[in-house]
Amino acid sequence: MTQKAERQVYLNGQWVNESAAKVSISDRGFTAGDGVYEAIRTFRHKPFRLDDHLERLCNSLRVARIDPRLSMEQMKAIVLEAIERNRPLFDADDDFKIYPTITRGLSMKAGSPATVIFAPRSISWGEFGRHYATGAHIVTTSVRKQPPECYDAKVKSTSRFHHTLADIEAALVDPEAYCLMLGMDGNVAENRSSNICIVRKGRIETPSPMHCLRGITTEVVFELASKLGIPAVEKDIQMYDVINADEVFLTATSFCALPVTRANGQTICGGKAPGPVTQRILDAFSDLAGVDVVEQATRRAARAKEKVLANAA
Amino acid sequence: MTQKAERQVYLNGQWVNESAAKVSISDRGFTAGDGVYEAIRTFRHKPFRLDDHLERLCNSLRVARIDPRLSMEQMKAIVLEAIERNRPLFDADDDFKIYPTITRGLSMKAGSPATVIFAPRSISWGEFGRHYATGAHIVTTSVRKQPPECYDAKVKSTSRFHHTLADIEAALVDPEAYCLMLGMDGNVAENRSSNICIVRKGRIETPSPMHCLRGITTEVVFELASKLGIPAVEKDIQMYDVINADEVFLTATSFCALPVTRANGQTICGGKAPGPVTQRILDAFSDLAGVDVVEQATRRAARAKEKVLANAA
Amino acid sequence: MTQKAERQVYLNGQWVNESAAKVSISDRGFTAGDGVYEAIRTFRHKPFRLDDHLERLCNSLRVARIDPRLSMEQMKAIVLEAIERNRPLFDADDDFKIYPTITRGLSMKAGSPATVIFAPRSISWGEFGRHYATGAHIVTTSVRKQPPECYDAKVKSTSRFHHTLADIEAALVDPEAYCLMLGMDGNVAENRSSNICIVRKGRIETPSPMHCLRGITTEVVFELASKLGIPAVEKDIQMYDVINADEVFLTATSFCALPVTRANGQTICGGKAPGPVTQRILDAFSDLAGVDVVEQATRRAARAKEKVLANAA
Amino acid sequence: MTQKAERQVYLNGQWVNESAAKVSISDRGFTAGDGVYEAIRTFRHKPFRLDDHLERLCNSLRVARIDPRLSMEQMKAIVLEAIERNRPLFDADDDFKIYPTITRGLSMKAGSPATVIFAPRSISWGEFGRHYATGAHIVTTSVRKQPPECYDAKVKSTSRFHHTLADIEAALVDPEAYCLMLGMDGNVAENRSSNICIVRKGRIETPSPMHCLRGITTEVVFELASKLGIPAVEKDIQMYDVINADEVFLTATSFCALPVTRANGQTICGGKAPGPVTQRILDAFSDLAGVDVVEQATRRAARAKEKVLANAA
Amino acid sequence: MTQKAERQVYLNGQWVNESAAKVSISDRGFTAGDGVYEAIRTFRHKPFRLDDHLERLCNSLRVARIDPRLSMEQMKAIVLEAIERNRPLFDADDDFKIYPTITRGLSMKAGSPATVIFAPRSISWGEFGRHYATGAHIVTTSVRKQPPECYDAKVKSTSRFHHTLADIEAALVDPEAYCLMLGMDGNVAENRSSNICIVRKGRIETPSPMHCLRGITTEVVFELASKLGIPAVEKDIQMYDVINADEVFLTATSFCALPVTRANGQTICGGKAPGPVTQRILDAFSDLAGVDVVEQATRRAARAKEKVLANAA
Amino acid sequence: MTQKAERQVYLNGQWVNESAAKVSISDRGFTAGDGVYEAIRTFRHKPFRLDDHLERLCNSLRVARIDPRLSMEQMKAIVLEAIERNRPLFDADDDFKIYPTITRGLSMKAGSPATVIFAPRSISWGEFGRHYATGAHIVTTSVRKQPPECYDAKVKSTSRFHHTLADIEAALVDPEAYCLMLGMDGNVAENRSSNICIVRKGRIETPSPMHCLRGITTEVVFELASKLGIPAVEKDIQMYDVINADEVFLTATSFCALPVTRANGQTICGGKAPGPVTQRILDAFSDLAGVDVVEQATRRAARAKEKVLANAA
C-alpha cells in the first residue's frame, strides 16, 4: 500500500486524510461528550440498513437538540461517498464501517454550527472472529448503565465514560470478556456496544430498551426470527435468565449475532456455540447480507492473527 | 493585540497556539467522553488552590484508570508555565483559568499514552458578573445527575451530555437561569459547573456529595465559614429547602459565591442579593484571594458589555 | 338565561343549586384530600361509557375503603337524572360532564357517612379546541407521579397537589403546555388529567399503568384500534420515545384524542396535527360517539372565544 | 352551654359559626387537595410557637405558589382573635388548636383569590391521654410517604389520602395503633400527624426530613434536649432502630412527647412508659409550656371518658 | 402404624430415618442459608412435573455455583426411590411431597462436597383445604422480596428469613392470612411459597418474575389456560389490581390454584370462591393430575381436623 | 492431642462434642435461614466485648421474633463456660471465637422452642495474618446487600446466600480479595463479615448502617479514635471515596483493623499498609486488648503456614 492511500474522512464539509482529521480541543464533543454517533457497516462494500442508522442518528440529534444542517438525503450521500472513497483501502472480501459523529461544535449558543464527521473504521475481526466457534464471554459489572432521567441509553451519545469503566472491570475477571451492564433497576441492559439476546424455550428474548440502545441489528434479528417462525419478545431480563438460558448471543453491527458460552467465569448454554436458534439466525443473516457472516469473520480473524504474528516476527 | 499574541496550550508535551490545539477524531476523549479535567483560576494572575485542584485531578484519573505519565510536580510546573505564557494576553486587573484535560488517548489498550492538555480559558464575566447585585436564577430540571454506580459525580469527567441537556431545559424556563439537577434519589445535586449552598437559620448547608462534585470552592467556603464562626454542614437537601432558604448561593471557581434570588420562576430569599451570610463569605473570600471578587466581576462584566456593544455598533 | 336556570347538584341525597353546593370545612375531602371522583361526559347529551366510569369509581372506592351507601344502579340513576336536570342549561350542540365525587365525609370512624356529590361541569372547549388543528404542547416536569406504595395512580383520588405543581411548572416553559409527569421509575406516566399515546411504526403505545390512571378513553382508543386493525400495546415508554414518535396524542374524556406537536419547546411529529393514525382514531371515535368530535370541539372553542371577546368589549 | 355558644371560624375575611363554615364543592382544596394547613395549639389559652407555625405555613404556601393575600402580621392577628373568640367555649384547664387552612380557591388562574380559613379544633385527649402511662402503639404500614419529587413531605399539604390508607392499615393490626410510614427509600418517615424520636445510648435521634414534616414540636424537643445536655441528631433511621431503641416517643402539637411501648404487636423499650429521657423532655416541656402536659392530658382524657360513659348511660 | 414405619430420607448417599436425618451445625446450609431446594408433589403417589422441578433445581444450583455431583438422571432416580420408600406411610387417597435440598456443605472451598438431601413431607391439607370453598386471605406486608441484585427470587434459595418476617407480619392482621410481598419496585411479587394470579376481564395475569419464583404450578396454569382458550399474561401488577380483580388465586405445588376472597381485611372478588375462571382451571388441573384436587384437599383437610379433635379429646 | 480432646458445643442445653453437634434437616435454620448469630472472640482466652455482642444478639432476636428462652445472664454464663471448656484445645498464645446461633427451631408456631447453639471456632489467622504488612485486597461486586425492607443488615441473620455469591464473584477478580458489597442505594455497604473504614484528611469515615451490620469492632475503633483525638463519623460513602482514601481498613472481630491496599485490582492508599491512622488504631487496640494484635496474627499465620507445609510434606 502506497503512502497516499490514506483513509478519507468527511469533516465539516471537507474530505481530509484520516491523519489530518482533527477537532479543536474546545469542541464540545471533546470537552463535554456532547455529541452523538452511529456505526454503519458494509456487506460486500455496500451499506447495511443505512436508512435505519440515519433515522436513529436523527432521533439522537433530536433529543440532543443538535442541528446537523444536513438533510437525511445529504447524510446518505456522504455515507455512500465515504464508502466509495475508502473501499479501495479494504480487501474485496473484507468489510468496514462508517461512523457519523455529530457534536454541538464549539459553542452551546443557538446558531453555532455542529461538528460533522463521517469516518471509516475497520471491523475488529481479530477481537471477535474466533468467538463464533468457541463462544464469547461476558462479565456482569458493578458499573451500571445510566438511567433515562440522565440521558436515555437509546441516544447513541459519545458520553460513554462508564462504558470504559465497565470494560476495564470486566477484563479484571476475564481479559476476553465483554462487559454486561445492568440498568439502574437491576435488569440486564447491554454491553458497551452490543445488545444481548437470550433463547429460552425456543423463544428469543431481549431486554426492554429502558436502559439500552434500540439495536438495529437486534431489530434485524427480530425480523429474521419472525420470518423463521421463531417467537421473539422484548422483556425485562435478569442475570438468572442469562445464566440459565438455552442460548445467549450478542448482537452488533460488526458481528451480527455472536454466541456466548461463558458468564462471570461460568460455562453457560452447555458451552456450545452457536446454539441451534442462534445458528438459524446466523444463517438467515448471511442470506440477507449476501455474505456468510461467520465464514467472513472467521477468515478475517485468521488473517488478522497472521498479520500480528508476522509483525511480531 | 497583534496577531502573534495567541494563547498557548500545552498539548502532549508541546506548547502550541490555541488555534492549532487539536486532537484526533479517534481520541477517546472525543469518541467516548473518556477523559477527566479540572478548572484552575487565577487571582492576580496567581493560581488559586492549585494543589487541591491537582489532587482532585489525580483522584479523577485514579478512578478513570488513566495514567497521565506526569507527576504531581510536573503538572504543577505546567500549570505555572501556562499561566506565565498566557498572562500577557490578559489585562492586569483581569484573571483567567487553566483547564487540564487528560483523556485515555487513542486506545484503551494498556500502555497506550494519554492525551494531556493544559489550556487557558477566559472567565465568562459577562455571564455572571451582574448577578452579585441582582441574584442569579436557577431552574430545577427533569434531567438528573448520574448515580455513582454509573460513574461518580465526584469524578470530573468529560462525559457531560446530560449537563448540556439540563442547561437547555433550564433555558426554556428562563434564559438567564442556571440549571439545578437532582440526584437519582431526588435530593438536590448541583449545577452543571457549580455547587449550591443554602443558608438556613444561620447555618450553611450543601448537598452530601453522592451526586455532585466535591467542590474546591465549596471547601474554601467551609473553611472561611469555620473562621467566621458560621456553622456549615453537608447534608441531604431537597428543593423545599432551597425555595425556603434564607439565602442561596452557587459556588464555583469562577464566581466564588454567587447569590441566587430566583428559583423556577419564583422569587426566593426575599429577592435580596447577596444575603448577610453570603456577604460575609464573599468578603472573607476577597481577603483570602487578595482581590475584591465582587468588584472585579462587576467591573469585568461591565467591560465585557462595553465590548459587545462596541462590536455591535 | 334567567336567574333560576342554575345548575343542579346532587349533594348527599338532595338536589341543590350549584351556588349552594357546599361542604363543611371539616369534610375529609377538604381537610385531607380523602376522596375519589370521576368525570363522565355526554355526547349529544347522553352519557358515554357510563358503566365503565362507575365501575372505575367503585374500584377507587374499594381501595379508599369508602362506602358510598349507594348501589351501582342508584349511582347510574343519579347520573342520568343529573344529565336530565342540567341539559336545559347547555346548547343542543354542546356537551358537558358529570363529576361524581365521594369523600369519607366528616370522620374516619367506621359507619360515618360519606359525602356524595354528582355535579355538572362544562367542557373547557376554549382550552383545547384549537389543538386538533395545530397540535397541543407538552412539557416534562421535574414533578413526578406518586408511586403505588403511596397511593395508586389508578385510584382517581382528589389528593392531587402535585398535579397542580406540575401544571404550574409546565406553564413556566410554555403557558399553553400540558404537563407530562414521569413515574418514580423514570418512565412516562401521564398528564394531570389525560393519558398519553404515541404511534411508532404504525403501532399505538401507551404507558403501563403503574403510575397512571387506567384511562377509559384510552381503552376506547384501544378498542377502536383493534377494530381498525391498528396494533396497540401497553408498555414502558421513555421521553425519547415521545420525542421521536411518529405521532403523539393525549386521551381524555373531554377531548377523546388530542394531537401533540410540541414537547419541551421542541417540534415533534413533524409538527403536523393530527397524524394519519390519530386521524383514523378520531374518525372512528366520532362514529362511535355519534358526534364529529373535532368539528364539535372546534366550533365550541370558536364560540367560547367569541364570548370572551364579547365580554372583553 | 347555650345554643348560641358556637365555635367561630374565620372564613375569607368573615367570622362565621362553625356549622356555617362551608366551602364550594368547586374549591380546589376540595377537588384537588390543593391546599396547605397548620395546627397551632394553646397552652393556658395562649398560642404556642405561633411564629414558627406561621413561618412554616408561609413556607408551604411558597412551594404551593398560593398567595394568601395576608401578611404574616395579619395572620397572627387572626390566630389571636380566633383564640379569643373561641376560648369561652373551652374549660379553663382545657386547651385547643387553631387550624389555618389555605387553598388555591376556585381556580388555578393567576389572580384568583385563595380560600383562607382559621378554625378552632378540640384536642383529642381521649385518644392519647392514657398513653403517657401505658405507652402508645405503632404499626409499620406497607403504605409509604410520598417522595419529594412528587410533593415534599415538609409541605403540610392537604393531599393526604395515603395517610388515611396508612391509618386504616395500621388499625387492622391494632386498633389503638398509630401508623408509621416509611419513606420511599425504606427509612422510617413519620406518622400521619406526628414525628418519631428514638433514644439510643442516651442520644435522641429523629429521621432526616426527606420524607417527613419538619416538626415544630420536634424542634422544641431538640431545644429542650440541648438545654438538658442530651445529644440529639437528625439521621436516617430504620425499623430495626425503632424496635431496639431504649426509648421511643412521638412528637406532635397535641401531645408534645408521647411514649411508645409497642411496635407491630411487639413490646419495645421494655414496655415502660415514659423512659427516663422522655420523662426529662416531658418535664422540661411542661416547664416551658407552663402546663404539666402529662397531667393535663391525663385529666382531660379521664374527663372525656366520663362524658362518653355519661352519654352512653 | 408401627414404630419402625419411619419416613426415609436420602442424605448424602444414604437412606436414613427422618429422625436421624441431621446436618452438622457447620453446614453452610445452616450457618449461611447457603443452599437451594425444591418441592415436588405427588398425585396418586406419582411425581408431578418432576422434570420441570429438577430443571429448576439445576438452574438454582447453577446460579449458586453449587455442584451436586449428581446427574439429572440420578436425581430423578432418587426422587422416585424416595416416593417408593415413603408411600407406604401415606394413605392411598393422600399425597405428599419430596423436598430436594442441596447446600454448599461444610466449606466454600472448591471441591468441597455439597450436602444433598431428598426428604418427604406431608401436604398441609389442614391449613388450606377449607379455602377452596371460602377463599383464602392475603395481607400485603411492609416486608419486601429481595431484589435480583442481592439474589434472584427465581433461585429457590434457603435464605428466606424475610419470608418468615412477612408471615408473622401478615398474621398480625389476620391469623389465617397468607403474606403477600411486594418487590422493591412496588409491584406485587409473591407469597412466601406461592405465586399469585389475578383474573381481569377474562384474562389471567401473574407478576413478571423479577421478584418472584417462576412457579411451575403457574406454568401449568398457563398451559391449561392456553388449552381452555383463556388468555394469560405475565405483567407488572399492583395491589390496586389485586383488590379490584374479578378473581384472585394462589398457585403452589400443594394447592394447585387456591381462590382468594380477602385482602388486607377487605372482601375482594365479591367474596365468592372459586370464581368461574379459577373453577375452570381447577377442573382442568384435576383432569391433568388425575385427581379431583379440590375434593382431595377438602377431604384430607376434614380428616386432619378430625385427628386434631381426636387428639384434643 | 488425644482423641477425646474434642471441642465442646452447647446445643439446646447439652454440651456435646463438636462432631456430634447436629441439627434436624427440618430445623428452620436449615430450611429457611431462619436464625441469627454472633461471633465473640477472646483475647488471652477472655471474651472481648461480651455484653455488646449479647446485646446485639438480643436485638437480632427481637427483630426476628425468636425467643431464646434464655436470659442475658444465662447466655453470658454459657459463653464463659464454652470458653472454659474449649480453651484447653487452643495454644496459650492463640485465641478463638464463640458463635452463638439461635434459630426458630422446628416450627414457626408460637411456643415452639428455638434451637440454641454456642460453638467454638478457630480464628482463620492463615487467611488474613499476612495482610497487616501487605494490605488486604477488596473487590466491588455486582451483588448487593439486601435493603432494610427485606431484612435489616443490622440483624446478624443466617440468611446470607448473597454473601457467598459476592465472595465467589470477588474471587474471580482476585482470589485473595474480600468482596465489598454496595447497598441498594449505591453506597458502599460492607464485606460479608467485616465493616469498612476509610481515612480522609485525618478523619475516619464508615458507612451509615442502612445496609450494614453495626459492627462492634467498628464501635471500638470509634471509641479508640475518640480517645486518640481522631475524628470519626458515620456517613454515606461511595467507591470513589474508597479508591481515593488516604487509608482504608476493614474491621472485624477476628482482625480488629486490617489495612487495605488494593481495590478492584488497583493499588490504593499508596500501597502502604498500615497507614499512620490505622497504625495508631491498631496500637490502641492492642493496648485495650492486652495483646499485640498484629504480632499475634502474624505469628499465628506463620504457624498456620508451617502446619500446612508440614501436612503437605
How do the helices and strands line up, and which of them pair or pack?
The structure is a homohexamer of 313-residue chains.
Chain A: E1 8-11, E2 14-17, E3 22-24, H1 28-31, E4 35-37, E5 40-43, E6 46-47, H2 50-64, H3 72-86, E7 96-103, E8 115-122, H4 125-128, H5 131-134, E9 136-144, H6 161-173, E10 178-182, E11 188-190, E12 195-200, E13 203-207, H7 216-228, E14 232-235, H8 239-243, E15 247-252, E16 256-263, E17 266-267, H9 276-289, H10 293-312
Parallel strand pairs in A: 9-10, 9-16, 13-14
Antiparallel strand pairs in A: 1-2, 1-8, 4-7, 5-6, 5-7, 7-8, 10-11, 12-13, 12-15, 15-16, 16-17
Helix pairs in contact in A: 2-3, 7-9
Give an account of the 3D structure.
The structure is a homohexamer of 313-residue chains. Chain A has 2 domains: 8-122, Aminotransferase class 4, branched-chain amino acid transferase, N-terminal domain (D-amino Acid Aminotransferase, Chain A, domain 1); 128-296, Alpha-Beta Barrel (D-amino Acid Aminotransferase, Chain A, domain 2), CATH 3.20.10.10. The first copy, chain A, has 10 helices and 17 strands. Chain A has helices at residues 28-31, 50-64, 72-86, 125-128, 131-134, 161-173, 216-228, 239-243, 276-289, 293-312; strands spanning 8-11, 14-17, 22-24, 35-37, 40-43, 46-47, 96-103, 115-122, 136-144, 178-182, 188-190, 195-200, 203-207, 232-235, 247-252, 256-263, 266-267. In chain A, the strands form 2 sheets. In chain A, strands 9, 10, 11, 12, 13, 14, 15, 16 and 17 form a 9-stranded mixed β-sheet that branches. In chain A, strands 1, 2, 4, 5, 6, 7 and 8 form a 7-stranded antiparallel β-sheet that branches. The two termini of chain A are 20 Å apart. The mean pLDDT of chain A is 96. Chains in contact: A-B, A-C, A-E, A-F, B-C, B-D, B-F, C-D, C-E, D-E, D-F, E-F. At the B-C interface, β9 and α6 of B face β9 and α6 of C.
